[in-house]
Design a protein that fits this description.
single chain; about 450 residues; mainly alpha; about 75% helix; elongated
């Protein structure tokens, strides 16, 4: 039967993996945690188990007897859920099966990690559940446990052989679960995760590789970028450049970028001078500022102005900005670059962005240029604009070039216009060259 609840375990895991990559799981986890917490508090109150209020005060101490009572309640919940799953599995009518699985799923979502682990072991041991239903249940529960208690999944790995009808798929499932669990565990405790990987590398040679290790560091970097960087050597990652890039890309907010920048400065300060040190820091800064640029002009410039970039770092930032970052605020960005980049470093990015803007919308670029205040940004922009329009409107380009002060910049712009002058206008081109002494 083709039932929507009968999803393969591999597909279940893949769905969650994709969700984690795009960030959807963060929102989902918050929603489910709130629901689970509300339910847990309600049940705990009924059992007399201590709960903590918003002010952080517990109603009473949790005793050993309380914990035993709570554990018994969890076991009872697992037993009830397992009976529900068995009942749904045994149903003959598709509509009845789907309805029962849906009812069970509502409770599975709210199941805590300890109870989830217990249920997984019970499902694994069962010999009567239909294979497709068993795969679907395990796929959902294992994916959930990867997120909530990844260490438990690592302990379960030896018991996961034979859960599908294909040995290769079993291996793929195991390696996928291993990678997801390590990444999630690394977010919380990268040192313990690294230790586990070192101790178990021989058992899982295909799964515990540089890619997995870098994934762990990406998760760790969201909480502690300095610790993540320190773990690169401890985890014996061969491609250090890739690891640093991934750690840097984990900084998605202004606060995270600032913390990561500080960690990067400290990390690279400990390396010997050389290309690896200089090039590595340059690449890392380009990644950080690229993230800031993507947030738009107001947020991006605010971070650049408050992150205490030194002159060399600010020059790197300028070299990283592109027209697709500035877009609707290109005029504001050009002015900011002219005022904030070190002397001698503003020309290249301003000229590059102005050239692209002119190519895509020369009229809007020209309107801004006509009202732009005098300064470094306008001077470089005039040169770029004149060079760009000279290919199809050389006379207009000449007019703009002549607004530049007499000197090497104007002379260089006039020579560029002459070089770009349309070939079919040879007489006008020659007259222009003669007028301005261009040979």
């Amino acid at each position: 039967m083709d039932r929507c609840v009968r999803i393969s375990i591999a597909a279940s895991i893949l769905i969650l993996a994709v969700a984690l990559v795009i960030g959807w799981q963060d929102h989902q986890r918050l929603t489910l945690s709130r629901e689970r917490n509300a339910r847990a508090v309600s049940r705990a109150a009924g059992l007399g188990v201590s709960t903590v209020s918003l002010d952080g005060k517990a109603t009473r101490l949790v005793t050993k007897r309380d914990r035993e009572t709570s554990n018994e309640a969890g076991k009872q919940e697992v037993a009830e859920l397992f009976d529900l799953l068995k009942d749904a599995d045994a149903a003959e009518e598709q509509s009845e099966t789907d309805k029962k699985f849906e009812k069970a799923m509502e409770r599975l979502i709210l199941l805590g990690p300890e109870a989830a682990e217990l249920l997984i072991r019970q499902v694994l041991a069962d010999k009567e559940l239909k294979r497709e239903n068993k795969e679907g249940i395990l796929g959902f529960m294992l994916s959930k446990l990867c997120e909530e208690k990844p260490q438990a999944v690592l302990h379960l790995l030896p018991d996961l052989s034979g859960i599908s009808a294909d040995e290769k798929e079993d291996l793929h499932i195991r390696d996928t679960l291993l990678g997801m669990s390590l990444t999630n565990w690394g977010t919380k405790d990268p040192r313990a995760t690294g230790k586990w990987m070192r101790e178990n590398a021989a058992r899982f040679p295909n799964a515990i590789n540089d890619s997995t290790k870098v994934g762990v560091l990406a998760g760790a970097a969201r909480n502690d970028p300095a610790l993540a960087l320190a773990q690169i050597d401890e985890m014996e990652i061969a491609d250090k450049e890739q690891a640093i890039t991934v750690i840097t890309r984990s900084a998605k907010t202004a606060e995270a970028r600032t913390a990561t920048l500080s960690a990067l400065r400290d990390y690279f300060s400990r390396l010997p001078d050389g290309d690896a040190k200089t090039g590595g820091m340059t690449k890392a800064i380009r990644v950080l500022v690229g993230s800031a640029f993507q947030e738009g002009y107001d947020s991006g410039t605010r971070w650049l102005e408050t992150s205490n970039l030194d002159s060399s770092e600010m020059a790197i930032a300028g070299s990283a900005i592109e027209y697709h970052h500035t877009h609707k605020d290109t005029a504001r960005w050009l002015d900011w670059l002219g005022k904030n980049l070190p002397a001698g470093n503003a020309g290249e990015p301003i000229g590059r962005i102005m050239t692209k803007w002119t190519e895509l919308d020369y009229q809007e670029a020209g309107k801004w240029l006509a009202t732009a205040p005098a300064g470094a940004a306008r001077s470089v922009s005039v040169q770029a604009y004149a060079a760009a329009v000279s290919r199809y409107e050389p006379d207009t380009a000449v007019q703009w070039a002549m607004t530049l002060p007499a000197g090497k910049d104007r002379d260089a712009t006039l020579r560029q216009i002459h070089q770009n002058w349309p070939k079919e206008q040879e007489a006008a081109r020659n007259a222009f060259a003669k007028e301005h002494g261009i040979e």
